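User: Quick sanity check before I run a bigger batch. Here is a single chain. Can you write out its predicted 3D structure?
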Amino acid sequence: MDPALSAVRFTVQEAIHTLSSSEDVGHILSTLGTLKRYLGGTEDPAFPEKEEFTTIHFSAVLRCLVSKLSPGWLELSPDGQLERLWESFFLDGPPDQAFLVLMEAIESTAGPSFRLMKMARLLEMFLSKGRLAALMEEQCRPQTKPSFFLVQETLLSKVVGLPDHLGNRLQQDNLTPFFPQNYFPLLGQEVLQALKAVVSFLQGGLDCSVSFVSRVLGKACIQGRKKEILGILVPQLTMLTQESCLWQRVCWRLVEQVPDRAVEAVLTGLVEAAPRPEVLSRLLGSLVVKNKKVQFVMTRKLLFLQYQHSPPPPGCILDLRGWHWIVNWAYGAEGILIPGPVQVSVELAKVLLHLEEKTCLADFEQLRQRALVAVTVTDPEQVAKYLTSQFYGLNYSLRQRMDILDVLVLAAQALSRPRSLQRLSQHGPPASGTSCSPVLAVSQPGNAVAPNWQLIVEERIKSKTRRFSKGCPRRELSGGPNEFNSVAGYFFFPLLQHFDRPLVTFDLLGDDQLVLGRLAHTLASLMYLAVNTTVAVPMGKALLEFVWALRFHVDTYVRRGLLSAVSSVLLSVPTERLLGDLPDELLEARSWLADVAEKDVDEDCRELAVRALLLLERLRDKLLSISSP
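Assistant: Done. Predicted structure follows.
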């Protein structure tokens, strides 16, 4: 054995003997001073000696100091020097060992006593001096001790369970810093300091791990303290991750290392604490794609708990604002889309479609709709396939079927405008009756034609007129790429396939004419939004066939939708394609429109017919030349 190390052991043994038996304060102070050198005194011993003392002998010295604690022993030094030196071993030495000995002493001390309260006050000082942060920082460094795992398990239990342990031991004498509502915010601040140390280590090229900090966070959240700890952490991490990619990676790793059983509690807390969807996106990054447990919890568990008809268990309830943010986060904030598995998008749409109001949330329907639109915009092909298939599905209420139609239109609007998803998440979709699309302009039975619809039609008519006058019809220039172009067919054609087939609980051509009217307006809007798309011509042809089959419908709301559909075709299909591909349909429509404009009992229907005729008027000469022998 190295003589120097043998000397450390001998020195410690002699010191413990002196401290246990001597009443000579000078001798005691001298002995403690000798031991203090191993903790970094003025005359530092060699590193191997210090390492042996701190790793092998330090806990034994602390237990000896605890055993001597009494009023009489401390009063051997009336000036308080002995007490200060005694405290310094717990406050300046390795924090993990000091903390465990403190907790051990408090838990093993019988009844109210001087020693119990003195140890509790010392623990209070330990916390106030940031020693918990030092403890967690130490656990983030590479560890080689054989007993490392057992020590960490004990530390984890004591750190998170401190309020319970102290409350049970001190009872009515408990100190306010140990109350849960005070302790866990402090723990959040200490976690932040430990993470700052981790970032500093990484910047210096040192290896480290956030696993222990993740376990502390997870255990605290499982115990129902996510609000207290994350209420401190999230605002700070929001600022720190704003400018630093390194801080973002540390946050991602922090969540990724949370034990499986605690993932749901941590993610729920983050969703509730994040002030905006883009903050949640920064804190979690692409974990929903890369990490299966995070993906499952965020896209299924959190939502399914509310989707189930039975009441969800306590502690796992999110309000709809949280769900909307999940959707915005899962698919990227500020328009930066993160591709996810198809089943994730469809699963979210399924949950949101079936979601019921259980929380008396004032804006429940709006938030649910916005979340559904966000999912659809992000994965339009797959979600549109799902929604359109459900429109004619069994066991859906009329409300759900109309929800599907509204979401399809709002998503199509968003896709037809560049970078609309960010605006959608910030401001929400346009309200019914204020949109420029025909279906939303006349979205409810009995509404007058909205002024915006009139303006849009007039503007589009003017643009069509200019093209005819120049003799060279051309498509309008759009302000950016129309993302609806490549997916319009998935939104449109499935809605036309089964409208004439009654189901047991759903008959569009029978009692459910309100939904038929909404369907007609929806198809009109989708046609309108498909302007300049490659699929506009077959869409227009199919829509005119739908109109022709229902043109004599007795319900005025249905007829308004059909008339809006005709205008949408005329506005969205390029003129040369109208003349080349749909001349027969247009001639039939012209005759019907003239009859409606003159004889329909509903004023709005007559007005819509006149507007469609104005569009057809621009084509009259060419239509007549085509029809003449």
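The chain has a mean pLDDT of 82.

User: Great, the batch can go ahead then.
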